[in-house]
Design goal:
- This protein has ten helices and 16 strands.
- It is α/β, with parallel strands linked by helices.
- A seven-stranded mixed β-sheet has the order 9-8-7-10-11-13-12. A four-stranded antiparallel β-sheet has the order 3-4-5-6, covered by helices on one side.
- A hairpin with a 5-residue loop joins strand 4 and strand 5.
- Helix 7 packs across helix 10.
- The radius of gyration is 19 Å and the shape is globular.
Length: about 350
């Protein structure tokens, strides 16, 4: 595009790697705050609409957040079939809760997010994303640490969603991608429960994080399937992984038919923007090089063994709404520099 056609005078710079930057043109800034845990910005970035940034990293935008939240929420629910009680680790923007409430089986959703200031800002300024889900009587928000909540809780869940920031050294979510934490999460699932986590960018040029998260899950769960979705505002494919101790069917005609049937029976007229039977199975078609790297990967994240050095994680994405291992939703960020950079 010729420079003369550029409309923005204010730019938000998001550092992807030490050598790459993604700039978002800003129409209006609604919130600029420093919470007890992170720097918070809510702004209208023009092309993608309302956007949430935490510590300089884009978490979600109203324009394309469905491309993130639909796979994160509906993949595990479709594989479960009849989710009633769901735990969201993160999710303070309310996008995940909005999607889960489309299921006619849902009875309770617990959201665990340490940063209440972010939650309140999202309630006020991001209704275009949460659609009132944070006020639904079936939804309870716990402003506490994710690890502490999982360890102390005696509740069992059908589905657990992890939407936490990436496991960078000195980062808030470092311990929450370890074998030890995944074992604790497994203890909060029913015997047929399903766990899903954001799993960093699948671009191997950015980071080896995705294969390592998958390998760590494989050390805990009997069935683990990585998948990915492309969210344009992130600039690269976003990885996820779904896990359970029961067999999971994610490929072939049987999966397509089961997904189509469940969407009709359980979601009814609740609109899905991106998912149907065909696109569901397509999520699990990872590129050959990513699949091969997962097979070769040896590192399992552990509190004892570590493996989180920043030089081995050059381009991590911090995800959604908070920086204490309990952030809200969207796990996104890839970054080296956590500073917010607004440039004119």
């Amino acid at each position: 595009m010729p420079g003369a056609q550029v409309k923005a005078d204010l730019w938000f710079s998001e550092y992807i790697t030490p050598f790459d930057v993604y700039q978002h043109g800003v129409r209006r800034v609604d919130v600029v705050e420093s919470t007890a845990y992170q720097d918070l910005v809510i702004a209208d970035i023009g092309t993608y609409g309302k956007a949430l940034f935490l510590d300089g990293k884009l978490q979600c935008t109203s324009g394309d957040e469905a491309l993130y939240h639909e796979p994160l929420c509906h993949v595990p629910c479709l594989l479960h079939g009849s989710p009633k009680n769901v735990l969201i680790l993160g999710g303070g923007d309310g996008g995940a809760a909005r999607e889960l409430l489309k299921w006619d089986t849902i009875q309770r959703i617990d959201i665990v997010d340490i940063d209440d200031q972010v939650i309140q800002a999202c309630k006020k300024h991001l209704s275009v994303i949460h659609h009132g889900s944070l006020h639904d009587p079936r939804v309870k928000v716990h402003a506490t640490d994710a690890w502490a909540f999982v360890q102390k809780s005696t509740d069992q869940y059908d589905v657990i969603l992890s939407d936490l920031t990436d496991p960078l050294e000195h980062g808030p979510s470092l311990a929450l991608f370890t074998r030890e934490f995944f074992l604790a999460v497994k203890g909060r699932l029913h015997h047929d429960g399903v766990f899903v986590t954001q799993a960093g960018p699948t671009s191997l040029n950015e980071s080896p994080m995705h294969p390592r998260i998958v390998k760590t899950l494989q050390a805990v769960f009997a069935s683990v399937y990585p998948f990915q979705a492309f969210i344009p505002s992130y600039g690269s494919p976003q990885g996820f992984a779904v896990a359970s101790d029961k067999p999971l069917v994610v490929h072939g005609d049987a999966a397509v038919e089961a997904v189509e049937r469940l969407i009709t029976e359980r979601l009814g007229e609740a609109a899905l923007r991106t998912l149907d039977g065909i696109s569901f199975t397509g999520l699990f078609c990872l590129p050959k090089d990513v699949r091969e790297q997962i097979k070769r990967e040896k590192i399992v994240y552990s509190l004892k063994q570590g493996g989180f050095a920043p030089d081995t994680l050059p381009g991590a994405r911090a995800n959604d709404d908070d920086d204490d291992g309990n952030d809200d939703g969207n796990d996104r960020n890839k970054a080296v520099d956590s500073s917010v950079s607004l440039n004119r």
